Amino acid sequence: MHLNSNKSIQITMRKLFLLSLASLLLSFSCETSSTEEMNDLNIDLSKVENLRVMKHNEQRIAYRLLNKDEKFKLWDDRLSSLIALPSTTEIQKKSIINLSKILETEFFSSNNEKGVSINEEIKGWIIENESKFSREKFILYFTTLNEVQSDNGARDDLVLDPGEDIEDCECNELEDYCIGISFECHKTKCDDSYKGCGFLWNSSCNGECEHKDA
């Protein structure tokens, strides 16, 4: 009982540290890049750029601090970079271009009719286009923000050790976009969050990626 209590305290402290670190890095970028602070869409470009270079586990925490315009900017730029990749086929490029035409700022604010409508359009896009990508490429392209290095594997910092302790939920149980064919999303006692998982990180985080044999 005492050991569990200590572990819970350690997890809470680590989470607070990561959140504070993400907040500090984003706020620091604001102070050092005043010429890029805001544009007409209420986007702090320095915050967006700074998030891109964070480690994967830090990105998800920092992502929660972005507003809907900044989230749109992040993913809109992501789609543009995917279209430009040499490894993206012409058929895949057309699919991504169609997705970029559907995607709007309000997708990241589903508390209104416009957001709900866009969300339904994107669900239709997934049904129609997911088979045009390998499972691994689809996951790397549309559920991560890190640089895509190859068609054959994820970056090392995206793959979690099956035995690693995770305090924050990292996947959506219904969408199940865990990286690696031997992993799948299971609902656990991890701390969930309203957004930050699934396709374009616009679904709730309510599970952990665990080894199928675990």
Task: Explain what you see.
The chain has 214 residues and is mainly alpha-helical. The protein has a domain at 1-66. 48% of the residues lie in helices and 7% in strands. The chain has helices at 2-32, 45-52, 56-63, 68-84, 90-102, 113-129, 135-142; strands at residues 183-186, 193-197, 203-205, 208-211. The protein has a two-stranded antiparallel ribbon with strand order 1-4. A two-stranded antiparallel sheet has the order 2-3.
Topology:
Elements: H1 2-32, H2 45-52, H3 56-63, H4 68-84, H5 90-102, H6 113-129, H7 135-142, E1 183-186, E2 193-197, E3 203-205, E4 208-211
Antiparallel strand pairs: 1-4, 2-3
Strand order of the largest sheet: 1-4
The termini sit apart by 24 Å
Order of helices and strands: HHHHHHHEEEE
Structural class: mainly alpha
Strand % is 5-15%
Radius of gyration: 18 Å
Low-confidence stretches: 7-13, 24-39, 149-164
Largest sheet data? 2 strands, antiparallel
Number of helices: 7
Shape: globular
Fraction of helical residues: 40-55%
Summarize model confidence as the mean pLDDT.
78
Number of strands: 4
How would you summarize this macromolecular structure in one to three sentences?
This protein has seven helices and four strands, in the order αααααααββββ. It has helices at residues 2-32, 45-52, 56-63, 68-84, 90-102, 113-129, 135-142, and strands spanning 183-186, 193-197, 203-205, 208-211.
